[in-house]
Amino acid sequence: MSIDKSVKEEKGGVISITGKDNEEMYLYSILPEAIIKEKGLLNVAVVGQFSDTKKDKKDNIVVNAFQANPDFVNFFHEFLANVARYSKPLLAQLPQQKEGSWLYLIDQRVKDVNAAIEPKDIIGGFMVEKGKLGEYAGNPSHELLTEDGIFHIGVELKNELINLIQSKYQPN
User: Fold this and answer.
1) Which of 30, 73, 66, 32 is nearest to 146 (CA)?
2) How far apart are CA 98 and CA 105, in angstroms?
3) Which of 122, 126, 116 is CA-nearest to residue 146?
4) Which pLDDT score, from 0 to 100, does residue 18 have?
5) Which whole number is the average pLDDT over 130-143?
6) What pTM was estimated for this model as a whole?
7) Cα separations (Å) of 75 from 27, 58, 70, 136, 143?
8) Cβ contacts of residue 7 below 8 Å, gap of 6+?
């Protein structure tokens, strides 16, 4: 699978907010921090929350638990079902697929796609129907954050996801 290097990747990251009880909460947002500072934080932009966090000597977050945001997960899979089916890298794999088989969307943080893929790294899949991508099913075992980092769907799809989330902001 090739990646268009000319497309600049938008980066999200860990943000700190003050919760209802004045406690510091750490969230992972897919939106770049500049957008959040300018427009605020949308719920569907929050990939998940770090709970039971500590900081190391360098003031970095040490994550013991990550809880995915169900609103983001649902939005993410709806996006993939409607947009990823037109992704050039995914469509390029279609001719090698048999009718009735599944074409899986593998998390690109996986270093060796020829090795056995763990369920936590399978984002979802499309049923191959009449030579086209049919029904999409998200994988409930996919982990948005692992020891290898946050999920990665490719720069172009990620930027499309970010643009779609940004479109949810109400105009001023």
Assistant:
1) 66
2) 16
3) 122
4) 81
5) 96
6) 0.85
7) 17, 35, 8, 14, 15
8) 155, 156, 159
